[in-house]
Amino acid sequence: QVQLVESGGGSVQDGGSLRLSCAASGRTYSRYCMGWFRQAPGKEREVVANINKDGSTRYADSVKGRFTISQDNAKRTLYLQMSSLKPEDTAMYYCAADVAGRSYCSMWYLMYGYWGQGTQVTVSS
Q1: Is 31 helix (H, G, I), strand (E, B) or coil?
Q2: Residue 13 and which of 27, 44, 66, 121 are 20 to 30 A apart at CA?
Q3: How far apart (Å, rounded) are the C-alpha atoms in residues 82 and 65?
Q4: For 65, left (φ over 0), alpha (ψ -120 to 50), or beta?
Q5: Where are the extended beta strands (E) located within 1-125?
Q6: What is the mean pLDDT of residues 3-25?
Q7: pLDDT over 90 at 26, yes or no
Q8: In the predicted model, is pLDDT for residue 93 greater than 90?
Q9: Cα(23)–Cα(35) distance, rounded to whole angstroms?
Q10: Measured on CA atoms in the order 22, 38, 19, 50, is the torsion positive or negative?
């Protein structure tokens, strides 16, 4: 069983920054694929970034160069540093875990079996 709890969302102006955190339970946290996803009203859930157990990362094209995913295995915490935020980044942000032990981390949300409750990010122009 894995429990994920996000924090750090809020409202910022266009060009602002936020850091999201996701605290995870689970004795083998360091073996998971972890990801950040987002969903805006009326839109499908989409990947933002993911990080593999070896520390390799992947990003959606829309956030490359602006967002950074990282993790602290000792603290079992996943982070998403978001800079140069745009109004189109407005969404509910979720962290997710894929505990299947894959050698790669999928960009597809259906491959992630555990989800947090989400944290709202609102960027105003």
Answers
A1: helix
A2: 44
A3: 10
A4: left
A5: 4-7, 10-13, 18-24, 33-39, 46-51, 57-59, 67-72, 77-82, 91-98, 114-115, 119-124
A6: 97
A7: no
A8: yes
A9: 12
A10: positive
User: Beta-carbon neighbour count of residue 70 at 10 Å?
Assistant: 14
pLDDT at residue 12 greater than cutoff 80: yes
For residue 43 the two structure tokens come to 């839109």
Token pair, residue 31, equals 């073996």
- What amino acid is encoded at 42 in this protein? G
The answer to whether 19 and 79 have CB atoms below 8 angstroms apart is yes
Query: What residue has token string 């997710």?
Result: 96
Residue 94's contacts (CB-CB under 8 Å, 6 or more residues apart) are: 6, 36, 37, 38, 39, 45, 115, 116, 117, 118, 119
